[in-house]
Amino acid sequence: AVLIVVALSIIQLRFDGAEVERGLARLAEENSQRILRLEGGVRLALFPRSAVVLERGTLSGPGGAMAFAAFDEARLNLAWGGLLGGPQQVTGVVLRGLRAEVAAAGAIAGAVEGGPLLLDINEVTLERADLRFGPGDDSLLHLDRAIVRFAGGAVDVEGSGAGLGLLGALGAAHLRVGPG
Predict the structure, then answer these.
(1) What is the pLDDT of residue 77?
(2) Which residues touch 133 (CB under 8 Å, ≥6 apart)?
């Protein structure tokens, strides 16, 4: 029990939320010309699963010209192996309270390396998400909960909410999985 407490203490001491926030903002700007703004900061959660938690944020579309998404909380799920040393690997994302303009998304790619985190995302969970498909478009896709899994070149969608079948069809047609 003492070793577990010591290990958890080391993990918390190694984590620098400000560095992670700067690294994620730099990664968004350099890799996709987007602007990431976080209003609530960054923290490390160890339970129920290790994750970097981003509170209240916005992400611009490519070039920073148009708002793409806003969220209440984003959990970047981490592999346990990188917490004591080496790069911290993000294996999944949980977005809560997402509001997004899908037309402003641009290309979505798989693994991205750089900054304090290695992004190798194989699952995205949306909780309470509202997706709009174009500027001035009145059509709104509301998802209570949806899980999108990426495996090889396949996209698998499951969940609940109005229009979930449409999300699956859009995912299969528009998401590109793999190196950018």
Answers:
(1) 94
(2) 101, 102, 103, 139, 141
